[in-house]
């Protein structure tokens, strides 16, 4: 028997467990008011359970110690009305305390739920999130169609400003969860719901799909990027622009490759003829950190690997492989990288 696999399995389990206590993917590192409310409830319940645990273990230990001395002589069963009364009293008060504590916890979770739901604002930012197998469509709706931003997997928001997230799903049930920002929210097909988030500290906050949704559920990440007002406004202005025209022949060739291959059947690049919404909007692909729902960094090499054989990287995902000539592939990537 080879002892290595179980040990390394244990090692990664421990690493995974410890990972909860570091970094931003953590409900105990709240980044805004909703997450702080949830953290408060967590600690209240934690300490109640901790006290109950100590009381229970103490009770067990005392009972065990007492029985050991008495078990030596087998005592006959004797009637002991005084002892019975005391036992009845002890059990009844324990039951009463338990019920009261559970009601208190219920009350506090209802209050916390109301607080998390109840924060409102007259001037929020609205973001529509649509779950797809296995990526997130992110839209900043506007009454004017040309003022609507569409992107994927990376959600930019300004620091300190309330944001309404509207949810929906294009296929199956997904769940939107950024632990340091708010609780899990299911995205249900055919049903839209809304909830609030707010982040008070600039940074990048990771999130995951938290409802098993098929083969690539584990590769369905997103991030919320909280930035100061000016940076957010700049990002917003940039995203509103249609795609930049290719500045050099290589990029122009790449645009041609995109337009003459299957890409246009699934992707949108605003300002070109590509207008399909099966896959992520690529108009500003170059402004994203990661691709394929946080699966790969947005680099030349990763783009090449992804475009040639996305099925190898994320088996079962809804993008087909593309057999491109090396020249065409290079030009295509050059073009995609100009889409800032
Ligand atoms: C059959 C539909 C389809 C075709 C054809 C297709 N794609 Fe995709 N593409 C997708 C889907 C779906 C995703 C999202 C995959 C995921 O993350 O699970 C995607 C993701 C991408 C991404 C990553 C985007 C991001 O922000 O994560 C890039 C880049 C991309 N496709 C480029 C291309 C190019 C270039 C072509 C043509 C050579 C192409 N695609 C053809 C459906 C398609
Ligand atoms: Cu999922």
Tell me the total number of β-strands.
12
Question: From the helix content, strand content and strand pairing, which structural class follows?
Answer: alpha+beta
Tertiary shape:
elongated
| Uncertain stretches | 1-7
Roughly how much helix do the residues carry, as a percent range?
A: 40-55%
Number of helices: 9
| Largest sheet strand order | 3-2-1-5-8
Do you know the CATH topology of the largest domain?
Immunoglobulin-like
Q: Give the end-to-end Cα distance, rounded to a whole number of Å.
A: 54 Å
Listed once per kind, the bound small molecules are:
heme C, copper (II) ion
Question: Which tags fit this structure?
Answer:
single chain, five-stranded mixed β-sheet, binds copper (II) ion, binds heme C, 340 residues, 3 domains, alpha+beta
